[in-house]
């Protein structure tokens, strides 16, 4: 069964912390996990979003990008503003 609240959290994390994308990162113990910026993501929720067409997988299968925003996730949040160097 799909966890819509976890899928929503995953989308918001990718949008807000990952600049619209997530990457697979290999950990210190050799285990790989999905991250949006510093935020670890639930792999099952990520794969559900890929399977439903909301996320697009890169050809090397090491990154995803938001392709469309589903209505169950609420309004599309603003992308965080980049801090400008002075």
Gist?
With 86 residues, this protein is of the alpha+beta class. It is built from two helices and five strands, in the order H-E-E-E-H-E-E.
Report the order of strands and helices. Answer: HEEEHEE
Number of strands: 5
> Helicity range of the residues?
25-40%
- Rg, alpha carbons: 13 Å
Give the amount of beta strand, in percent.
Answer: 15-25%
Shape: globular
Describe, in plain words, how this protein is organized in 3D.
By secondary structure, the chain is an alpha+beta fold. 27% of the residues lie in helices and 23% in strands. The protein has 2 helices and 5 strands. It has helices spanning 4-17, 43-51, and strands spanning 21-26, 32-36, 39-40, 55-57, 63-66. It has a 5-stranded antiparallel beta sheet with strand order 3-2-1-5-4. The protein starts with a helix and ends in a 20-residue tail after the last strand. 22% of the residues are buried.
Features:
2 helices, 86 residues, single chain
Indicate the topology.
Layout (H helix, E strand, L loop, with lengths): L3 H14 L3 E6 L5 E5 L2 E2 L2 H9 L3 E3 L5 E4 L20
Antiparallel strand pairs: 1-2, 1-5, 2-3, 4-5
Helix pairs in contact: 1-2
């Amino acid at each position: 069964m799909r966890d819509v609240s976890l899928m929503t959290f995953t989308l918001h994390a990718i949008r807000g912390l990952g600049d619209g994308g997530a990457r697979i990162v290999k950990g210190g113990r050799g285990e790989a996990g999905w991250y949006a910026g510093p935020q670890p993501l639930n792999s099952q929720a990520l794969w559900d979003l890929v399977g439903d067409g909301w996320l697009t997988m890169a050809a090397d299968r090491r990154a995803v990008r938001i392709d469309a925003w589903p209505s169950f996730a609420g309004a599309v949040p603003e992308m965080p503003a980049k801090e400008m160097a002075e």
